[in-house]
Design a protein that fits this description.
By secondary structure, the chain is mostly helical. The chain has helices at 4-44, 69-81, 86-96, 105-124, and strands at residues 128-131, 138-141.
């Protein structure tokens, strides 16, 4: 029976997965108990817990960008060129990091999405202006107020 290594490996893997499921179910039970108690306290203050929006998963940090790097890149490119698109920043970042923007389409789309999130945050903070809509959006720095 030459399959003993395969069988023992599968048994080991099954055991590990089953154990992980048990651990996760315990964590779910603990979290549900915590939520129940939090809801009870909110009700004491006259709040309805079901009206509080649920937060989704936080996006994973990119291995390519340091904290604050995207907004710094956006600012630099806007100072250089005036008007920019998120794709301009993505291409520039990819080239700087030794990636080919023409062949790494998936990576380019991920960079562009992350850059757009950052640009929208900068717009909400009043630091940049959005010009245009949908696929023709350009961005520029908000002019400093004189006075």
């Amino acid at each position: 029976m030459g399959d003993t290594f395969i069988i023992s490996g599968l048994k080991e893997k099954r055991s590990a997965v089953a154990g992980r499921i048990i651990d996760l179910r315990r964590e779910i039970d603990r979290l549900q108990a915590d939520l129940y108690h939090i809801d009870a306290v909110l009700k004491l203050y006259g709040l309805e817990p079901d009206e509080i929006p649920v937060k989704g998963r936080m996006p994973k940090r990119s291995a390519y960008f340091a904290r604050g790097e995207i907004s710094r890149r956006c600012h630099e490119l806007m100072r250089e060129r005036g008007l920019i698109s998120a794709d301009d920043v993505a291409v520039s970042a990819m080239v700087d990091k030794g990636l080919d923007p023409d062949t790494n389409r998936k990576q380019r789309a991920d960079f562009t999405r992350r850059i757009l999130v950052s640009l929208h945050d900068l717009r909400k903070a009043g630091k940049v202006d959005q010009i245009g809509t949908k696929t023709r959006v350009k961005w520029r720095l908000v002019p400093l107020a004189e006075g």
